[in-house]
What we know:
Blueprint: H1 3-20, E1 23-35, E2 38-49, H2 52-72
Antiparallel strand pairs: 1-2
Helix pairs in contact: 1-2
Amino acid sequence: MNAVKGLAIALIIAGALGLAYGSFTYTKETHDVKIGPIEMSVKDKETVNIPVWAGVGAIAIAIAIGGLLLVFGDRRK
Protein backbone atom coordinates (compact mmCIF):
# COMPACT_ATOMS: atom_id res chain seq x y z
CA MET A 1 0.00 0.00 0.00
CA ASN A 2 1.43 3.38 -0.95
CA ALA A 3 1.37 6.58 1.10
CA VAL A 4 -1.62 8.12 -0.72
CA LYS A 5 -3.85 5.13 0.02
CA GLY A 6 -2.66 5.13 3.64
CA LEU A 7 -3.57 8.82 3.95
CA ALA A 8 -6.96 8.18 2.35
CA ILE A 9 -7.76 5.36 4.76
CA ALA A 10 -6.59 7.48 7.71
CA LEU A 11 -8.92 10.31 6.63
CA ILE A 12 -11.88 7.97 6.30
CA ILE A 13 -11.21 6.47 9.75
CA ALA A 14 -10.83 9.95 11.24
CA GLY A 15 -14.14 10.92 9.67
CA ALA A 16 -15.90 7.91 11.14
CA LEU A 17 -14.41 8.54 14.59
CA GLY A 18 -15.40 12.20 14.45
CA LEU A 19 -18.94 11.18 13.64
CA ALA A 20 -19.01 8.85 16.65
CA TYR A 21 -17.59 11.37 19.17
CA GLY A 22 -19.08 14.86 19.50
CA SER A 23 -16.65 16.22 22.07
CA PHE A 24 -13.22 15.78 23.60
CA THR A 25 -11.86 16.25 27.11
CA TYR A 26 -8.51 17.54 28.31
CA THR A 27 -6.94 18.31 31.69
CA LYS A 28 -5.66 21.80 32.49
CA GLU A 29 -3.34 22.32 35.43
CA THR A 30 -3.34 25.71 37.15
CA HIS A 31 -1.08 26.90 39.97
CA ASP A 32 -3.30 28.70 42.43
CA VAL A 33 -1.29 29.14 45.65
CA LYS A 34 2.45 29.43 46.23
CA ILE A 35 3.57 30.11 49.80
CA GLY A 36 7.32 29.79 50.16
CA PRO A 37 8.38 26.28 49.15
CA ILE A 38 4.79 25.01 49.22
CA GLU A 39 2.91 25.11 45.94
CA MET A 40 -0.67 23.98 45.44
CA SER A 41 -2.01 23.19 42.01
CA VAL A 42 -5.44 22.32 40.74
CA LYS A 43 -6.18 20.05 37.81
CA ASP A 44 -9.37 20.96 35.97
CA LYS A 45 -10.96 18.58 33.51
CA GLU A 46 -12.53 20.51 30.67
CA THR A 47 -14.79 19.28 27.88
CA VAL A 48 -15.03 20.92 24.49
CA ASN A 49 -18.29 20.24 22.65
CA ILE A 50 -18.14 20.39 18.89
CA PRO A 51 -21.30 21.82 17.26
CA VAL A 52 -23.19 19.28 15.19
CA TRP A 53 -23.06 21.38 12.02
CA ALA A 54 -19.26 21.77 12.28
CA GLY A 55 -18.77 18.08 13.02
CA VAL A 56 -20.92 16.91 10.12
CA GLY A 57 -19.26 19.36 7.71
CA ALA A 58 -15.72 18.39 8.70
CA ILE A 59 -16.53 14.70 8.63
CA ALA A 60 -18.17 14.92 5.21
CA ILE A 61 -15.12 16.72 3.82
CA ALA A 62 -12.69 14.23 5.38
CA ILE A 63 -14.61 11.25 4.02
CA ALA A 64 -14.98 12.86 0.58
CA ILE A 65 -11.27 13.68 0.31
CA GLY A 66 -10.33 10.23 1.60
CA GLY A 67 -12.61 8.57 -0.94
CA LEU A 68 -11.26 10.68 -3.78
CA LEU A 69 -7.70 9.86 -2.77
CA LEU A 70 -8.55 6.16 -2.75
CA VAL A 71 -10.09 6.31 -6.20
CA PHE A 72 -7.78 8.79 -7.95
CA GLY A 73 -4.68 8.70 -5.73
CA ASP A 74 -2.57 6.26 -7.70
CA ARG A 75 -3.14 7.78 -11.11
CA ARG A 76 0.02 9.31 -12.52
CA LYS A 77 0.46 11.64 -15.47
